[in-house]
TrEMBL record:
InterPro entries in alphabetical order: F-box-like_dom_sf, F-box_dom, Kelch-typ_b-propeller, Kelch_1
Transmembrane region(s): none
Taxonomic lineage of the native organism: Eukaryota, Viridiplantae, Streptophyta, Embryophyta, Tracheophyta
Identification of the protein by name: F-box domain-containing protein
Keyword set, alphabetical order: Kelch repeat, Repeat
Pfam families in the record: F-box, Kelch_KLHDC2_KLHL20_DRC7
Claim: Repeat is one of the keywords in the record: yes
Domain of life: Eukaryota
Residue intervals of the F-box domain: 52-92
Amino acid sequence: MTDLACGKKRLAESNMFFTNSAQQDAATRSKSSSLLTAQATHDFHSPILPGLPDDVAKDCLALVPRSDFPAMGRVCRPWRSFMQSKEFITVRRLAGLLEEWLYVLTMDGEGKGSHWEVLDCLGQKHRDLPPMPGPVKAGFGVVVLNGKLLVMGGYSMKDGTGIASGDVCQYDSCLNRWSKLADMNVARYDFACAEVNGMVYAVGGYGMDGESLSSAEVYNSDDNTWTFIESLRRPRWGCFACGFEGKLYVMGGRSSFTIGNSRFVDVYNPKRHTWDEMKNGCVMVTAHAVLGKKLFCMEWKNQRKLAIFNPEDNTWKMVPIPVTGSSRIGFRFGILGEKLLLFSLENDPGYHTLLYDPNATPGSEWQTSQIKPSGLCLCIVTIKA
């Protein structure tokens, strides 16, 4: 379908078809394995929606509300394949139907574990994610790629010893399930990672024997492979990464070539396959997020101010954080609706999540939000689907 208005008129009809198809699928799953095999073969060669061209059928499926995606993915193989493709997100984007949801790794009660939970733009909780595959880890990296959540590396404890991992798993937010991807070339933890131009980079960190690393590698989702790129000029760990204008920026953390924390910024240019260097980064970063074309950071030594980096002129500015509901310090950053969310690291019932709008009129940039996870935030990402 090329006409969006016409596609929206079919919304009620496509939702009705979706409901009927889901009921039919439930009946099919109760049959014998031989019938399921035959049905799967039929599904593979079937049109997405009988009686409609596939391009029209894709527009219809894209109109289904996001909360129904997991059920929709269980209907048949053609639906599931379309939902797992990059095209599904593209069709929803062109239709103006992308929904932003927050995926929050939050601490369980008494700090005995953690789980991922999903919140919408109103703070309504939709579901808890299935447990991540493999052993419980710390020091892992998190990146969003093509509407999917990638969790990489980290370390786990075995017999009192930390073991670095190169494992990579992917959570499909549409189908609500985890899958295994290719391992990194180097097992690493406390490293920097980011998505730049549809590629995922992993840089530095600690290795298998606790050694500091300068190696860097890049992941291509098209062929599910990791490839080494030029290494950093110095080993670096405890750092973070972000992408601006097609380049990878690595900052924060420590380096074996500096005393204390490093202010150096390593900048990788994928077109030239080389690293450059700047000297005006921030140190001891406890939270960071990219919003628009700027980087927002919080440093340990100054946790009541936002440090905002503009890559166009490599400058920083400081913005005070108001005392609203609590004077506690320490935050995790989230992004929602082109605004910065600040979630407190202190379990204070009277505290409200802070919201910073960089596009608001001067004096009204700060507000409060009702969005609040069920426990303390360990990590937050935004996935549009």
